[in-house]
């Protein structure tokens, strides 16, 4: 299986093949990037559109997943944000300029969720810790729900 690579500017190196903690950290970094982009996308969708509510729920779940993953890293004895930039020092992965159609927002957010899913799958493949696997499984199931919701609009 091809391993997902870190994007330029993401601030986290691709995990070594034998480092499950680094793979978990990569997922957390990707979640933070998606949070930033969903926040920007949310601002471009009118409140009256169904997509706005879907993005609200996704944003809430992303924040929950970030806390869940950070807690797992702390339980493993790793400082969750020690090896990556904070959310405040990041730039959103997608340069949102001006208005965007609902279709464009769905496409871009869907791409982010696909990339996050690749990172989750890679981290799951490396994890031995049951609690970490459960946390990553929760994120993976949530991603499927949100990808389905985006596609059904």
Q: Could you walk me through the main structural features you see in this protein, from its secondary elements to its overall organization?
A:
This protein has four helices and no strands. With 153 residues, it is an all-alpha fold. The protein is globular. The termini are far apart. The model is unreliable at 1-17 (pLDDT under 50).
Give the averaged pLDDT, no decimals. Answer: 83
Total helix count?
A: 4
Structural class: mainly alpha
Instruction: Give the H and E element order.
Output: HHHH
The tally of strands reads 0
Give the overall shape.
Answer: globular
Provide the low-confidence segments as ranges. 1-17
What percent strand?
A: under 5%
**Helix percentage range:** 55-70%
How far apart the termini lie comes to 31 Å
Radius of gyration: 15 Å
Q: Give the biggest beta sheet.
A: none
Helix/strand layout:
Elements: H1 20-43, H2 50-75, H3 102-126, H4 130-151
List keywords for this structure.
mainly alpha; about 150 residues
Quick take:
It contains 4 helices and no strands. It is mainly alpha-helical. The longest helix has 26 residues, at 50-75.
């Amino acid at each position: 299986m091809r391993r997902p690579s870190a994007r330029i500017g993401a601030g986290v190196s691709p995990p070594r093949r034998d480092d499950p903690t680094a793979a978990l950290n990569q997922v957390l970094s990707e979640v933070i990037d998606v949070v930033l982009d969903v926040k920007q996308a949310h601002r471009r969708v009118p409140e009256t559109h169904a997509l706005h509510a879907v993005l609200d729920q996704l944003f809430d779940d992303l924040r929950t997943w970030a806390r869940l993953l950070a807690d797992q890293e702390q339980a493993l004895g790793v400082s969750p944000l020690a090896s990556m930039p904070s959310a405040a020092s990041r730039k959103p992965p997608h340069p949102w300029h001006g208005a965007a159609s609902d279709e464009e927002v769905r496409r871009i957010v869907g791409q982010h969720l696909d990339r996050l899913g690749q990172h989750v799958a890679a981290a799951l493949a490396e994890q031995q810790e049951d609690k970490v696997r459960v946390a990553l499984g929760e994120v993976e199931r949530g991603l499927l729900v949100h990808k389905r919701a985006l596609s059904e609009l």
